[in-house]
User: Fold this.
Amino acid sequence: MKRNPYFEQISNRYLFQEVRHRLLHFKDKSPDARVISLSIGDTTEPIGPHTIQGLHDAVQALGDRATYTGYGPEQGFADVREAISKTIYQGKVPSDDIFVSDGSKCDIGRLQLLFGPACSVALQTPSYPVYQDTSLLFRNNPLILLPCTAENGFVPDLSPAASADILFLCNPCNPTGRAFSFSQLEQIVHFAIKHSITIIFDSAYSSYVQPGFPKSIYEIPGADTVAIELGSFSKIAGFSGVRLAWSVVPSKLNYSTGQPIKPDWMRIATTFFNGASIISQKGGMAVLSDAGMKEIDDQVNFYLANTKILKEAFTERGLEVYGGTHSPYLWVRFHGLSSWQAFDKMLQDMHIVTTPGIGFGQAGDGFLRISSFGSRASVTEAANRIKGGCLCSTQQ
Amino acid sequence: MKRNPYFEQISNRYLFQEVRHRLLHFKDKSPDARVISLSIGDTTEPIGPHTIQGLHDAVQALGDRATYTGYGPEQGFADVREAISKTIYQGKVPSDDIFVSDGSKCDIGRLQLLFGPACSVALQTPSYPVYQDTSLLFRNNPLILLPCTAENGFVPDLSPAASADILFLCNPCNPTGRAFSFSQLEQIVHFAIKHSITIIFDSAYSSYVQPGFPKSIYEIPGADTVAIELGSFSKIAGFSGVRLAWSVVPSKLNYSTGQPIKPDWMRIATTFFNGASIISQKGGMAVLSDAGMKEIDDQVNFYLANTKILKEAFTERGLEVYGGTHSPYLWVRFHGLSSWQAFDKMLQDMHIVTTPGIGFGQAGDGFLRISSFGSRASVTEAANRIKGGCLCSTQQ
Assistant:
């Protein structure tokens, strides 16, 4: 068998594999170190009792002949799609345009199939590595990179993307934590309409968006003619291991030929996917109830309070800190150090694992992404180490 | 955005969407008909109590800070991979070569990424439509079709596949129900070694294989140098809605350049997937225990007894019936009728939904696939209708 030649275009290791590799090496050398992870954006708080009960009920139903069900519809149960429409979008996105899935990462991969081998992809740099890696494994068109730097306030100049077919956007941005304002997002939508670009709007962290800022791209008029939106239960409901997400492909969204995209997305769902676990979906129904949404709010506020503690610590150390307002992530700049140097220093000196900014693209070099997912005790301990630790020495 | 041009190569509707569409039309016209489904291969029996307890325990763990976990490893938990190695493969396949997933259909789609756009794919016809559809959406190389007919005993002549890079095989075969003997599978493996073909061996129905026949391709010496195997909990443990499966990519499996395939599969897993639901995985651990395997045996025997009842009914009607020995499916021939004509007749005359054989490829025309997933009561009722009903008239 021949190898997909496009593997040559991506690195051998996915970012977090490399982080794990370096961490294991460190632990091998320093077995007694109490390492705190502020690295992978992984939830740590337990799922609330109302949602847990929903998951139990789903399991129980599978044990009884009268309530047992096998395959669900590939695009998700109708009640889950309706609840997402109602609770997340206040009914403004029709349930028929919503497709339930097992994760946004998986949806990004499947979306590449809609675009085909010839299309041109633009994306922010730094950004979630999956946009880039999945794009490069499907085709050999060069990517159009849109730098998001401290200097441009992490809002990219879109003009190089005028020729693109696809524009990946993450809002609030992973890793920079930046959330677009209404006027910024309006400009982006108008740009996409003008240049016939389809936006893939990854809103996995939308529950962290503060009032006065758009949570969904569909809050911008006309966006339903140019944008696919991805949403996820991972970070809002502690479902990173449970696996539940959704995509919105509006009926009004067309290919440049005028042909609608939605039927093809349905074809992809039925051909490459068999539905999210029905247990996860019933858990999602519990999340989307009033009691479940209260549990979400509590979790989001808990993680945002963690973010505040960490932001203060880095600021006290005199470092440039971005993000953290609309996001569980901080984006911390280390002048004079590469990302991997800063990563190694934080690990060696403070026994804190972080995520090197360069893992999100060249424009992320010199930064670390700091995740505030963690128990209050470990985040407070990390903050103390940051305030008291030394960032200038490599000695242990 | 441009449309992936390869959509032109596949039909607009996935097979079972078309079946549902015709069924809804029929129900609309005949609202009082008590329709029995022998169509989609979907489990109907409840999950056994031991496995249900395993699922409950997994849910409970998510509700407690001390036991909560977020993302698991993309390739699955180590204990699940070890249990698959031990229980399914008696330790003969190392756990490190096993990758846990959310379904074989999803794995087939992701495997296409390994092969890249230039490779040549061979497959049995009739076969599970996902092999063909996922292949055609990735590339425009013509498929090499290997007919499996009553005349060749549903064992294909492989010689047209000598130039292929990839050979999809399903064993026991969906839809024909045929299971390869040891000598047949040995010949296939030798052919693949001789012609440097990688086999994708879909063993989703392996628990139906009767003693004296190979359940896994790795029972054939040398297969670990040419074969990827797919396994699934869907049909063996009633997990079609729970979503749990696995793939085996042996360390010894190389590209034609000698480069190992396994690291690329790990890269695909980490880039396009985020792990199967941890609830499903813990349920899988319960399935793979002694008590869980007993529950599986009971389910397999239950469905095989259904198959026997249906086989007798069709035989009594004088129809040619294949399969059903190593498989929950019958493959029934209707001389003088196309598959869709036979489908419509079964629906109109007997109010039984089946799956048209042509949905699995041209060579399946004139056949129906009959699934024996169903309660004993509905299968017995279906058998009575088959024995007593009229297959010769279109009147209702």
Chain B has twelve helices and 13 strands. Chain B touches chain A through 87 residues (CB under 8 Å). Chain B has two domains: 5-46+292-388, 49-289.
